[in-house]
Amino acid sequence: MLKSIVLYIVVLLISACSRAPEPVKALPDFALTAVTVDGTSPFDLRAMRGRVWIADFIFTRCGGPCPMLTANMAGLQKRLPKGVGLLSFTVDPDHDSPEVLTLYARKFGADPQRWFFLTGEKPELVRLIRDGFLLPVVENAAASPGERVTHSTKMVLIDAQGRLLGWYDGDDQASLDKLSADARKL
Fold first, then answer.
1. Which partner from 8, 38, 163, 183 sits 20 to 30 angstroms from 17, CA to CA?
2. Which whole-number Å values give the CA distances from 130 to 37, 152, 175, 182, 185, in the listed order?
């Protein structure tokens, strides 16, 4: 029993002292619109430089995991330093207009200085999510609006140079704790 406790403490200490993740790849350039409760502005890769970011992928009519993912982003907003930015990319830009995203941001208490909801042309968003973040996005036009888009529940950690550092399960508390710890190391 004592041996197990000591081993557990050693593992915790090693993981707490571990280094930040290594970059996987750089994001490609993009041009989208950032929406906050205060309004809209252009947003591109240059706007990301100099700040650590956590990204997720949602849509406001989602009848599945999106409200939980957004609630988890709100939790990260509270527990991480203000220097860490948050990006929520819509996967349903046809519906998620800036006005709709503003209401959604307000509903979840998004800080307009650090949490941006991104929208734009659908091909640009799909290209960025698939080719940049290396995540799936599939649309089934025959499905009901709240189930039309299939997307990842992963959250992505991005360094201050716009490089992907890792993917984390946005619906798993242990993974969110790891994401938070990794973000703090940067």
1. 163
2. 27, 10, 22, 23, 27
Structure tokens at 185: 């190391």
Q: Is 86 helix (H, G, I), strand (E, B) or coil?
A: strand
Contact 153, 65 (CB under 8 A): yes
Q: Where are the alpha helices (DSSP H) in 2-97?
A: 2-16, 45-48, 66-79
CA dist 176 → 44, 57, 82, 106 (Å): 26, 15, 17, 23
> For 31-84, what is each residue's pLDDT tens digit?
999 999 999 999 999 999 999 999 999 999 988 899 999 999 999 999 999 999
Structural domains of the chain in order of their starting residue, each with its CATH number: 23-184 (3.40.30.10)
Task: State the pTM of this model.
Answer: 0.85
